[in-house]
Amino acid sequence: MDIVPPLDPGSPRVRFGAEMRRLREAEQLSQAAVAARLGCTQTQISRLEGATRTPSRSDAERLDQLFKPPNASSFTRIYQSIVSQSRSPIWFRDWAEEIEPTALVLRSWDPLLVPGLLQTEAYARHIFSQEPHTNPEEIEERVKNRMDRQGVLERQDSFSLLFLIDAGVLRRQVGDAEVMRGQLGHLLDAAQRPNIFLQIVDPKCLVGLLGAFMIAELPHGQPDTVHVDSSTEGHVTMDPESVAATWKRYETIRLWAYPEHMSLKMIDDARREWT
């Protein structure tokens, strides 16, 4: 089940989809025909037109080449409006709206913080409040986006999530002791779900210090896709070499993970320490 926010009829993303449908129908082209020319799937075209998929810059540029609309209504210009209105990175909106809602299995590694999908509202708010030049309105919007994203955890299909978390995260203070107790208690509650598996990784695992990442296994024979964090922004790719390298790193980190029953005890012990 896809989790998507209510659509704003006046938003640039809706305008992008409406203009795309208008020009496609004017050219008497089917969605499949446009998909073939753009090198994507008919489902992706349908989601773009329905404004349930955020277009990429390459989507906009290829549509401009295909339909050659007037400059004032070019897809590239509309795309720029989408980017300017978004306070979250455009590349991550694609991951959150396209990949997570359809993945069969999602594997996550984080050496520094509790993964976003498992963060409490208080924990997330403190993280966002530490970023420079961020006002209260932006903080609350980002917190809301993060909580909305967690709706993917409510999927009713066969969706599995496997989280590896560095042991240092349990004692890295984010907010006050109450925030940490609530966050670690939330991890214990999440681990009771039948489709969520959580393991703590020994801090001696130095290969894990290269950074956080997620690996998504997708349905219908689609290639695995990875999201890799960097110091400035994340990167989403299905490039075979990048995916293979990320898989190797994941398997190496997993060798340093404690069994789940030991991991949950470690979380509970750390929770009790936050007094």
TrEMBL record:
Organism superkingdom: Bacteria
InterPro entries: Cro/C1-type_HTH, DUF5753, Lambda_DNA-bd_dom_sf
SUPFAM superfamilies documented for this protein: lambda repressor-like DNA-binding domains (SSF47413)
SMART domains assigned: HTH_XRE (SM00530)
Pfam families (alphabetical): DUF5753, HTH_31
HTH cro/C1-type domain location: 20-73
Protein name as annotated: Transcriptional regulator
